[in-house]
Design goal:
The protein has one domain. It has helices at 2-14, 21-34, 36-45, 54-77, 85-106. The chain has 108 residues and is mainly α.
Length: 108
């Protein structure tokens, strides 16, 4: 999953912003903002013993993503850097990778 986060960051910054590449940027950007942070939080908070099916885990991931990205935006609003594309992409990628690494290496 960390490869998916890094691939999204690469696509956001390296692909041109005109069609047909803009459609790929919109699609991968939506996955990057609306699914990946919540899925990373879900893997940390909900253990495998609960046996959630794919639909429930996906819906929880979308809900958690919306709330996590909202809190990131509120936090960035009060920093000197403000809310720009660079700060949002960097902070969402860093938080998602932190949760992935925590799940993979620490919480075993």
């Amino acid at each position: 999953m960390s490869i998916v986060v890094l691939a999204n960051v690469i696509v956001i910054y390296l692909f041109p912003s005109h069609p047909p590449f803009s459609y790929m940027r919109w699609l991968l950007g939506a996955v990057f903002i609306l699914f990946l942070p919540g899925y990373a939080v879900t893997t940390v908070l909900i253990n495998d013993a609960t046996r959630l099916d794919g639909v429930a885990r996906g819906l929880i991931s979308v809900g958690l993503s919306v709330s996590v990205v909202t809190f990131i935006g509120i936090f960035l609003n009060y920093t000197p850097w403000g809310i720009t594309m660079d700060t949002v992409v960097t902070s969402v990628a860093a938080l998602t990778l932190a949760f992935i690494l925590y799940r993979r290496y620490i919480s075993r």
